[in-house]
Amino acid sequence: MRYNKDSKEVNYPITLLKGVVLSFSATLVLIVLMSIILTYSNLSEGVIPVINSIIMILSIALGSIYMSLKVNKKGWLNGAVVGLLYIIILIIIGSIFIDTFKLDSFILLRSVISIITGIVGGMIGINLR
Questions:
Q1: Fewer CB atoms inside 10 A, N or C side of the chain?
Q2: Is residue 60 part of a domain?
C-alpha cells in the first residue's frame, strides 16, 4: 500500500490495472472512431499506421496521467510501467492472434515509444496536481 499526499490509501496494483484498462479503453474508442472516419471519408488507407501510432501514444499518455494522479509519486516511473504493460499486452495479443507475428525492430521501436510516452504522461500527471 502506498499513500499520496492527501493521506488516502492507494492500492498500487489496482491503480496500475485501472491505468492500463483506461489506456486500452481509449485505444478501443479511438480505433472505432478512426474506422468510422476512414469509412465515410476520402482518407487513404496509407494513413492507418500513422493514426495507429497516434492512438497508441494518446492512450498510453492518458493511462499514465491517470496513474500519476492517483499515486502522486514517481510519475515518470509509474508512467513507464503503464507504457511497458500496455506494449507487453499488445505483444501477447499479437502473438496469439497473428500467425505471422514476430518480434522485430518495429516492435522494439514501438516498445521504446510506449515507455517514453508513459514517462512523459507520468510527468504530466504529477505536474497536474
A1: N
A2: yes
